[in-house]
Amino acid sequence: MAIAVGQQAPDFILHDSDKNKVSLSSFAGKNVLLLFFPQAFTGVCTKELCAVRDDIARYNTANAQVLGISVDSVFTLAKFKEDQAYNFPLLSDFNKEVSRLYGAIYQDWILDMKGVSKRSAFIIDKEGVVRYAEVLESAGDLPDFNAINTCLASLA
Would you name the residues annotated as active-site residues? Predict the structure, then answer.
């Protein structure tokens, strides 16, 4: 299923790297930047999330909560977050339900891995409406952060 701009964002509940349940709906009244990424500790994923970490003031100014989502376990994500000092939650979609719900999943990936999150970016506004959607086919590509930042600035 593909998520389209203008539709209500599907709600979900996932565990964060601290083992707490986090729902999308708990951020009502804030903009949310969902960043699906294939796997912790890989080069492109680390580069992407470190860039977001280093630019967190931009997201805070836009009243935006950043959420990173992958199919890694909460334990892997806890170590990844600690090692890279990420300043936003990392959520485990270990059962692959949210990645499927958002149309952000590889059926087949490298090394015969199946069901890995596609690198994707979604902006959900304060009312829960999708304002930006980008699902990348190549895990080596990064989301268009210029377009993301322009979208968020228009919502602030």
Answer: 45
